[in-house]
Amino acid sequence: MNFYPRIFDKKPKLTSRIPHDEQSATNKLAHEIKQFLPSNIQERPFVLICIGTDRSTGDSLGPLVGTLLKERSIPNLHVFGTLEDPIHAVNLSEKLSYIEEQFPNAFIIGIDACLGRVKSVGIIQIADGPVKPGAGVNKDLPEVGDIHIAGIVNVSGFMEFMVLQNTRLSLVMNMAKTIANGIHEVTMMEKAKFIPIDWGKEQTL
To answer: Looking at residue 197, what is its pLDDT?
Structure first.
């Protein structure tokens, strides 16, 4: 979990924000992610690092996204950080070392939950540069990603740990589905029409 007290006032040309419940949120998210992809993305491993823990509702956004995408076995997308095998403060450095060894020159998207202003809760931010896990709770952890996606799950400013524990799971789950669908669309960009995945149903191949 990270924390941006002035999350939308910095580098406006390099940051986009999308309400997770907007009708076209998935397509907008995919479009914004595509803008950040390098021209040689086809030649580089595409890695998703989903940060968080299943032990805290608010901090489960990353593992939920990772689980949704991992279960669909999307070709050419390497997903790390799930509900079963989360990436968090304790194992982050170890996991990053493994990923760097296994996927040199990878293009990495870091995904994490964050806290922000009241009016920004439910917003998904896509930004250039790495995410800084643990910044909101004064933890010094390695930065993650060439770009990052952060979901604002609750309000910052007071007893952040308690706020995360009392975050509504329905909000976090809906945000996770939007992010997962957006990333899925990016990986399927060669198709003429994208159909959002219904995560509640089994998919046919």
So the answer is: 56
Q: What is the CATH number of the domain that holds 182?
A: 3.40.50.1450
Nearest to 115 by CA among 144, 145, 137, 147: 137
- Indicate whether 200 belongs to any domain: no
Residue 96: how many other CB atoms lie within 10 Å: 18
What total number of domains does the chain contain? Answer: 1
- Annotate the chain with DSSP letters as a single string: -EE-TTTTSS-GGGEEEEETTSTTHHHHHHHHHHHHS-TTGGGS-EEEEEB--TTSSGGGHHHHHHHHHHTTT-TTEEEE--SSS-B-TTTHHHHHHHHHHHSTT-EEEEEEEEEE-GGGTTEEEEEES-B-TTGGGT-----B-SEEEEEEEEE-SS-HHHHHHTS-HHHHHHHHHHHHHHHHHHHTTTSSS-----TTSPPP-
Q: What is the mean pLDDT of the chain?
A: 85
pLDDT on residue 11: 43
Encode pLDDT of 69-92 as tens digits.
999 888 889 999 999 999 998 999
Give residue 39's domain range: 2-187
Tell me the whole-structure pTM to 2 decimals: 0.84
Give the model confidence (pLDDT) of 122-166 as tens digits. 999 999 999 988 665 556 789 999 999 999 999 887 767 778 878
